[in-house]
């Protein structure tokens, strides 16, 4: 069948024009929402007095209380005089129109809140003419400083331009940002454009890590792993937890690890539990011949629970390696696309110097590294990594954060 090149070119050109027009429309709507609508809604709702002890936990995407919030939520639930509410914007989970409606509802609610807890970037909070009675605490969702984010990615492929990043900021109105050690304060200040803000980023430790010092939590996590991977009852648990590739809205899970080769070499001693990043919707399939060896547990268990029972972790550029260092167990870095990823997003530290374990670029290298660690593992490199990046995470981070946030007169001041 013959085709008409000119007709095809005309159709392609038309699609490009339509996409460009839609981008402009979405950009103008976004400007209207964050520059005009949300601030106006907030000002009107803020005419009512702040409700003493009203606490909001704002989740951007998921509809449940995620691990970043769970410890703090549980602790504050026990404190008298506080009323807790969980709010989800459902960003990228619902249509854009619905998301904006969620933002408006949140802003009305936040206008009378005394405390707002975040675990991620929030332009919905940053655009508000925040009243001084309200304190915003950024718990964040990870530890350490690995791959770049926020302003640190400005003008890289992953990020927008510096001007675009500043046009709709994500990290304004913050009273406190909690991080895992003094070493990484500079990275968060850079990413959040807080270099000129005095002592907002504080090495209190990260609330979510307190569970790793709870024997009951460790025990229940190991039992849960046995339930979802019963063939691993008498084998070691090998966890593969890579970060996503591409942009957040179309995140992809890597598929470069040859699971069949892994099974043929390690299947007698290990089971492999795969945990993809929550942003990844369509995950790589597990080959049929790997049944009983490899399990995709992305929907069945949280990453905190999973690493509690992991004998060894394979990752790449994910911040979970910081949390896992608390266990002083072997880590392997499958960084087959390290150069490409560095150009795409970049790292805060030199990758070769940062990684507290062997760096591999092929499945065979990963297998050799697993066998070598199984035979003789020296934890000194992991300990040094932990001491540098996780020294404030000792099981009492939530205590320190609560003291900072609620210790002022009437519980409304962030202490120094």
Task: Describe the model.
- The protein is of the alpha/beta class and 416 residues long.
- It has two domains: 30-206 and 396-411, 3-Layer(aba) Sandwich (Rossmann fold), CATH 3.40.50.11820; 214-389, 3-Layer(aba) Sandwich (Rossmann fold).
- The protein has helices spanning 5-45, 67-77, 96-110, 123-126, 162-167, 185-192, 215-228, 259-266, 303-308, 320-324, 338-344, 351-354, 363-375, 380-389, 397-406, and strands at 54-59, 83-88, 115-118, 135-138, 176-178, 201-202, 236-240, 270-274, 294-296, 312-315, 331-334, 359-360.
- The protein has a six-stranded parallel beta sheet, with helices on both faces. A six-stranded parallel beta sheet has the order 9-8-7-10-11-12.
- The protein starts with a helix and ends in a 10-residue tail after the last helix.
- The model is unreliable at 409-416 (pLDDT under 50).
